[in-house]
Amino acid sequence: MVNHAGGISVITFVVAVAISMGYYQFVYIPQANAKPTLPEEVLNPPEVTEVSIAEGSSLETNGQFFVPRDARGTIGISNKVVWTNGDVTGHTVTTDDGYVDLINGEFNSIEQLGAILMPGETFEFTFTQVGEYPYHCEPHPWMQATVEIVESFA
Ligand SMILES: [Cu+2]
Predict the structure, then answer these.
(1) 104 and 146, same structural domain?
(2) How far is the CA of 66 from the centre of ligand 1 (A)?
(3) What whole-number distance in Å separates Cα of residue 91 and Cα of residue 84?
(4) Measured in angstroms, how far is the CA atom of residue 38 from the centroid of ligand 1?
(5) How far does the centroid of ligand 1 lie from the alpha carbon of residue 140, in Å?
(6) Which among 15, 88, 103, 135 is placed 20 to 30 Å from 149, CA to CA?
(7) Judgement on whether residues 15 and 86 belong to the same structural domain of the protein
(8) pLDDT tens digits, residue range 53-99?
């Protein structure tokens, strides 16, 4: 009389290990590492919110720096913000609180461009989450402003 029970349980064990390894490698890890899936209109909104850097911003007495100082965009419509440097010196658009967007990385023109935003240049950043994003200019700390991204109620 031959006992097959031992052989069958070894095979069952090997198959179970293979299945759980496959699950871990092909299902669990990709899900754990996946970026959130967001609607196309949030990733590439149809409109932009524009902010200009006023001429003379490098002087604290100028009074006007980022215009408008409180910019507002709507998620899925205008959550991409474009800054245009209308001044004659370089500036930065730098998060006050270290905000990192899950899709687009750190809200920081130095980080994104690898350089100061020079006169006439533009910097764009798409905020994929609703929220308030205070920022400043690194060389000119009196240049302070906020972007607010609000829910769409359309
Ligand atoms: Cu500046």
Answers:
(1) yes
(2) 9
(3) 10
(4) 33
(5) 4
(6) 88
(7) no
(8) 999 999 999 999 999 999 999 999 999 999 999 999 999 999 999 99
